[in-house]
Amino acid sequence: MRKVFNPISMLAGFTVMLMVTACNGVFDGIYDEVPATPSIMEGQLLVDATSWKDWCYVDFDSLHAYVERKDTAGLLKAQTRFVRCGIPTSLSSGTGDGQTGIYTYWFDVFGKGISVNEKRSFAPADVQPEPQSWSLAFHRNNVRTNNGAVLETNYTSMNDLPKNSAAFLGAVFQPDEWTENEVWVDRSQMLQSLIGCQGIMLNKVLSSWLKLEIPPMPPAFTHKSHVFIVRLSNGKYVAVQLENYIGADGTKCWLKINYKYPY
Asked: This protein's superkingdom (predicted)?
């Protein structure tokens, strides 16, 4: 399934966005806004991953606590409100570790496509802030785990999954890996085909459920509906599936995710 950007939204994307470095919901108790009446049911997440400037964190243990308390109303609310942590774009002190920071890459946007790219510069920055407890983090079409690993299945329905994760015990799960040109942060030089990217660990298997393609122009998204199994650092498993990535107003990267936890 393919959807294309609204050209007006693409033009607006060339404006410079200010970066923040605090975790809303951790340091100042502020959560991200969600639609007043989101279409969501138990076993689903509605994640606003539209921002270039921060990561949105989901903690499945916290969600499951509502299930154990039989607090359905609290659970539905928690499935739309998450901790957000801004992406650091500068170094507050010291010289850094030589790896953590913003990497500026040139992408062959108007030629062979963004798969062809070259590193142009590096600026050290602070380490990415994180909440104390989290399972998955989302940034537009990027997903990372908290020291977990991911398996892509051939299932396209949560109802068709085996009864539990024991069916996948012999499978190979892929951990996160270091990336320098996947998490696009600074678009102030986009007209020159230059993008500032965050150097960070990323799970490429899970991130493959929503792929950005350039060309064509305007850019297009490719959505994969497969169910993915995530092995969390606590030894538990969660099954996740991206059902939709378009918000009620047509904005891309509003992620509607089906999940089963613990699986």
From this structure: Bacteria
> What phi, psi does 72 have (nearest 5°)?
-65, -45
Q: What does pTM read for this prediction?
A: 0.85
pLDDT digits (tens, 9 = 90+) for 131-155: 999 999 999 999 999 999 999 999 9
Spatial separation of the C-alpha atoms in residues 9 and 252, rounded to whole Å: 10
Rounded-to-integer distance, Cα 119 and Cα 102, Å: 11
Are the beta carbons of 45 and 256 closer than 8 angstroms? Answer: yes
Structural contact between residues 126 and 100, judged by C-beta atoms closer than 8 angstroms: yes
The two tokens of residue 164 are: 């539990």
